[in-house]
Write a structure and sequence with these properties.
With about 550 residues, the protein is of the alpha/beta class. Helix content is about 30%, strand content about 25%. Among the domains are: about 55-200, 3-Layer(aba) Sandwich (Rossmann fold), CATH 3.40.50.980; about 430-540, ANL, C-terminal domain (GMP Synthetase, Chain A, domain 3), CATH 3.30.300.30. The chain is built from 15 helices and 26 strands. The strands form 6 sheets. The chain has a 9-stranded mixed beta sheet, with helices on both faces.
Length: about 550
């Protein structure tokens, strides 16, 4: 009798592949679904470009087909070094639909840092716009095969490079074959190490996070969202844009995050939703253009990336009383949302990061991974399907981050009896002064109570007496004149003596990365070395 076992095995394998393909959940599939649900609705507005959901999906198909035709294979890394634009987002989804892996790069990095990311990730293609072409040319790595240009918000692609239009391919619609726990993107963190870590996020990591955002941040089809923070960072890309796209919202894209431009676009498009770190919200409060009119349509405001000073929250609510505010806390490694403080929770828990979001479980633990009592300080650790798969080519730091079966955030916090978390500091930002732990955040909150303080950062600077001297770096509000003596007297009224700054420096602006985080490492390095620049004015 003929042996049909091999036929049966082949049939089972074929059936399993068919089932797996039918159940595939991928990033680019959410765009396809939104295009079928909201085809004629406006998806993207960027400068003079306006795409419906159907047009956006068709553009992604053309680009994905072109990438495949050009020789891109599943799992290949494609880097993107550019400011926000419609092209950035089209490529983001096309790379996923072509089964490749996105490597977004911070456009504020120098050529050496960009080269490191290109080499470390092994990226084959790099797409750039006019604003980044010079950096890209000085950062080429051996793995890179092609350098290509894309249009920006107001610019065409760089003339000297092959255009992204060379990839446009009008073949049949592309169907991705990767999703689920397959690698979607490698996002390099802006941490305190000398070299960044490449956080590996799967399709599932990102899509589980989208569900958390949609539920806890109330994204709806009627939302009109302004996206002005850099899309290379997952806070804007996956906390804001992705969930908005999934529900069918309208998205205004800009690569010019000045206060003047943000206020103009919020008014022009009757935007209902806006996300920014505290530094940008502060710039809106201080902008002369604020006086040009109210923002009656702005109903939902989100802040994150760093701690919002309580006094600034009060100013925002006084300016825009109808604006509902969410505090979003997290980090790249959790795709990135971890906890949320809802609008109705702000009055009772002002300054808190809220409670874990829908798909996240969070604990506050000591060095032995034991839960600390309510009200005591420990490290934040998480368990969640949103978490990264590990760090690219870095097993040692991956093992360290997941010690004990939980992800170690590196943030210190307290949790109250109701589960609300208050972030105290980054472990590396806790100041050890005179044998006592001093939270930089607590000192910053006290500084913001002074009417002359526009922005403040508190760091520890090596000192022979205090080991680390609590040091305040302050940006003074326009129209105010304040001295170190004034600031120290103010702090003496609001802080215990050991917490009060020992030194005060005044600066025109605070260094920050493109996602709005103040670069305390830069301040520490510059002040510890005694460096004086024309930006820094040392108080007498």
């Amino acid at each position: 009798m003929p042996d049909n076992s091999s036929v049966r095995i082949d049939a089972v394998e074929t059936n399993e592949k068919g089932i797996a393909h039918a159940r595939l959940q991928s990033l680019s599939a959410i765009l396809r679904r939104s295009a079928r649900r909201h085809g004629d609705k406006t998806a993207i507005i960027c400068g003079d470009v306006k795409w419906s959901y159907a047009q956006f999906d068709q553009m992604v198909d053309r680009l994905a087909a072109g990438l495949r035709t050009s020789g891109i294979s599943p799992g290949d890394r494609i880097a993107l070094l550019a400011r926000n634009s419609h092209a950035f987002l089209a490529l983001r989804f096309a790379i996923a639909r072509a089964d490749a892996v996105l490597v977004p790069i911070n456009f504020m990095l120098n050529p050496s840092d960009v080269r490191y990311i290109l080499e470390h990730s092994g990226a084959r293609f790099l797409f750039v716009d006019r604003s980044t072409i010079d950096v890209a040319r000085n950062a080429l790595s051996p793995s890179l095969e092609r350098l290509l240009g894309i249009p920006g918000e107001i610019d065409s692609p760089p003339d000297e490079l092959p255009s992204w239009a060379t990839f446009f391919c009008d073949s049949a619609a592309v169907m991705e074959t990767r999703g689920g726990d397959d690698l979607l993107q490698i996002i390099y963190t802006s941490g305190t190490e000398s070299r960044p870590k490449g956080a590996m996020l799967s399709h599932n990591s990102v899509l589980w996070q989208y569900q958390s955002v949609i539920v806890d941040c109330e994204w709806t089809v009627d939302t009109v969202a302004l996206h002005s923070m850099p899309l290379f960072h997952c806070a804007q890309l996956d906390n804001m844009f992705g969930p908005a796209l999934q529900v069918g919202a309208t998205n205004i894209i800009t690569g010019r995050p000045s206060a003047e431009n943000i206020l103009k676009l919020l008014r022009r498009h009757d935007a209902t939703s806006f996300f920014a770190p505290p530094t940008v919200w502060i710039s809106l409060l201080r902008a002369p253009e604020r006086a040009e009119g109210d923002l009656p349509h702005l109903a939902k405001g989100y802040y994150g990336a760093s701690i919002m000073p309580v006094e600034i929250l009060r100013e925002l609510r006084a300016w825009l009383p109808a604006l509902r505010l969410w505090n979003l806390y997290g980090q790249t490694e959790i795709a990135p949302l971890a906890t949320v403080l809802l609008p109705e929770e702000h009055d009772q828990h002002l300054g808190s990061a809220g409670r874990p979001t829908l798909n996240v479980e969070t604990r506050i633990v000591d060095d032995e991974m034991k839960d600390v009592p309510a009200g005591e300080t420990g490290e934040i650790v998480h368990r969640s399907p949103q978490l990264l798969m590990g760090y690219w080519n870095d097993p040692e730091r991956t093992a360290e981050a997941f010690a004990g079966g939980w992800f170690h955030s590196g943030d210190l916090a307290r949790m109250d009896e109701d589960g609300y978390i208050t972030v105290v500091d980054r472990k590396k930002d806790m100041i050890k002064s005179g044998g006592e732990n001093v939270s930089s955040r607590e000192v910053e909150e006290a500084l913001y109570l002074h009417p002359a303080v526009s922005e403040a950062a508190v760091i520890g600077v090596p000192d022979p007496k205090w080991i680390e001297a609590v040091t305040a770096v302050i940006v003074v509000r326009d129209g105010f004149d304040v001295s170190e003596t004034d600031i120290l007297a103010h702090c003496a009224c609001h802080l215990s003596a050991f917490k009060a700054p020992k030194k005060v420096h005044f600066q025109k602006s605070l260094p920050r990365n493109a996602s709005g985080k103040i670069l305390k490492r830069d301040l520490r390095d510059r002040l510890a070395s005694g460096e004086r620049t024309e930006d820094i004015r040392f108080a007498d």
